[in-house]
Amino acid sequence: MSIEKFTPNWMTEEHQMVYDSALKMFQSWEPKDEQWRKNGMIDRAAWEEAGEMGFLCAAIPSEYGGGGGDFGHEAALIYAQTEANQSGFGGMVHSGIVAPYILDHGTEEQKQAWLPKMATGEYIGAIAMTEPGTGSDLQNIKTYAVKDGDDYIINGSKTFITNGQHANLILLACKTDREKGAQGVSLIIVETDNVEGFERGRNLDKIGLTSQDTSELFFSNVRVPQTNLLGTVEGMGFIQMMQELPRERLIIALSGVGSMKLAINLTLDYVKGREAFGKPIWKFQNTRFKMAECYADYLAASTMCDVAVDAMLDGKLSVPHASLIKYWVTEKQCEVIDECVQLFGGYGYMTEYPIARLYADARVQKIYGGTNEIMKELASRFM
Predict the structure, then answer these.
(1) Given the DSSP bridges, would you call strands 151-162 and 144-148 parallel, antiparallel or unpaired?
(2) How far apart are CA 382 and CA 135, in angstroms?
(3) Is 225 helix (H, G, I), strand (E, B) or coil?
(4) Is the confidence at residue 1, as pLDDT, over 70?
(5) Which residues are catalytic?
(6) What beta strand segments (E) does 62-132 contain?
(7) Do 125 and 96 contact (CB within 8 A), yes or no?
(8) Is the distance from CB of 159 to CB of 132 less than 8 angstroms?
(9) How far, in Å, CA of 111 to CA of 352, rounded?
C-alpha cells in the first residue's frame, strides 16, 4: 500500500503530470544508483536527461529557456525525486535555488546568458556560501573580490558545496568590501570552464548523500568580469540571500516530506511481510501504533509544507514561517525514519536496504540551509 495525504490546493492536473513523469524518470535511475554511490556523484548524462525531459529550471520563464511553470512544478519534482530515493541529484540546488537568484536579482543580460544553459544542463549550477571557518554566519565570510580594471579578482575557499564537482556556474558569496559586515557581501557568478586560478578540492566523504557530489572549492586570483556581479550594485549579496533563503528552507522541508513518505511505505511493506514469533510484525500492537504515529507526523508535515507552497506561490512565505517549517519538518523527518529503522531491526542498519540510506541522508537536513538552532533564533526575533 501507499499512504496518502490531503490533496494540496496548489497541485493542479499539470503539476500531477510533472510529478508522475518525474517519478518514472527518477525510479528508472535505480539500477545506476549503487555505482553512483561508489563514484560519489551521479553521471553528467543524468543531468542531460533531466534537461531533455524539461525537469531543469521548470519554474523559470520560457523566454529564458525554462519550463514556464511556477514553484508548484519545483515542489512536484522535489516530491518525485525524494520518493524515488535519488538524493544524489542536485537539481534542487540548480533549479530551485541558483536559477531563481539569477531570475530575481540578475540583469536582463545575465538572465539571457545563463538561464537557458542551465535549463538544458549545459551549465550545472552551485551556490557557494559556506567556508571552512564560517557556517551559518554568512556576514563574516572571508572570500573576497577586488576590482582590477573591468574585472574582479577573487581569492578564498568554500566547502560543503553541493554540485561542486560538476558545476560550471557558481554563485559565489564574497566580500567586495572587507571593512563592512553584511553590507560588504556581494554575489558574483563564476563560470568555471577554462578560468585560471579555480580549483575543485576533494569530493567530500559524507555519512549520507553518498551519490551527491559535495566539494571544496578554491579561488586563487580568479579573474571574472565585473558584469558577473549579480545585479548592478555591490553589497547587496546579504539582502539577496535573506530574500531567497525562505525558498531554500521550504525546499529542504519538502524533501523531508518526500523522504518520510518513502520511509513509511518501505516499512509498511516490510512489517507486513516479515514474521517474528510465528506472525507478521504488523500483528504486534506496538508496530501498528508506531506506524500510526509516523503517519500522523507525515500528515502534519506534508500539510504544513503544502500550505507553505501556497504562500510561496502568492509571494507571502515569510522568514519566520519558512524557518520554523524547515526546523520542525526536518526534526520529524529524522524521528520518523529512526522509528522505521527500528522496525526493520538489524536489516535497517544495512546500507543495501534503502531505509538505511534514508536514515543516513536525513541527518544533514537539520544542518544545511541554516542549522535548526539558527532557524529557532530567526523565528524568535519576529515573536
Answers:
(1) antiparallel
(2) 23
(3) strand
(4) no
(5) 248
(6) 125-128
(7) no
(8) yes
(9) 43
